[in-house]
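Exercise 7. Given the encoded structure of a 184-residue chain, write a plausible sequence.
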């Protein structure tokens, strides 16, 4: 990602983190940003496993949600592989049906021709995956894949902070209220 594009992505992630009223809203903003900043015309879903079962926690549109759901039904596919193994996964053309034939056929039936899935980490541990879907074959060349990797890395950092803030919020609120009651 050229330095300028990386700075734009960081600025937009920062803006989303600061302006979001909840972790859910922030996740939705991240999915929308990824779809827009990596390459035009993409769909984006974010997969996490809050209770040991993969779910789409945010998406840019219903196509991403449906294609993510196909992977959960099959218990296999690029986003699950990226999340479980911690490596980027690329499908150049779903018409080839090379690696995940059933998933690729079903993704193609939703108009998806290529996919890029990237792991998301929080505190150095796998947390989920960023799933990018394109309506054209070979949509994720070297430059787009690099932008996506850089975005996923920045998004992982922002997500770590959002989760920490959300989990600390009740404790901080109690401490603030207790401090006010004590006259501090």
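Solution.
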């Amino acid at each position: 990602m050229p330095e300028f594009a990386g700075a734009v992505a960081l600025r937009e992630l920062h803006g989303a983190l600061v302006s979001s009223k909840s972790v859910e809203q922030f996740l939705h903003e991240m999915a929308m940003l990824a779809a827009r900043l990596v390459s035009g015309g993409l769909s984006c879903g974010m997969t996490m496993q809050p209770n040991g079962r993969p779910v789409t926690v945010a998406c840019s549109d219903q196509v991403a949600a449906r294609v993510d759901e196909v992977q959960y039904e099959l218990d296999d596919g690029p986003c699950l592989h990226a999340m479980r193994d911690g490596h980027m996964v690329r499908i150049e053309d779903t018409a080839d049906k090379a690696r995940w034939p059933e998933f690729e056929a079903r993704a193609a039936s939703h108009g998806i021709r290529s996919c890029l899935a990237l792991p998301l980490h929080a505190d150095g541990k796998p947390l989920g995956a960023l799933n990018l879907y394109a309506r054209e074959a070979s949509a994720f060349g070297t430059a787009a894949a690099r932008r996506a990797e850089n975005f996923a890395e920045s998004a992982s950092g922002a997500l770590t902070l959002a989760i920490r803030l959300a989990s600390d919020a009740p404790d901080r609120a109690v401490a603030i209220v207790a401090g006010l009651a004590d006259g501090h």
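Remark. The first strand starts at residue 43 and ends at 48. Students should compare their own answers with the one above.
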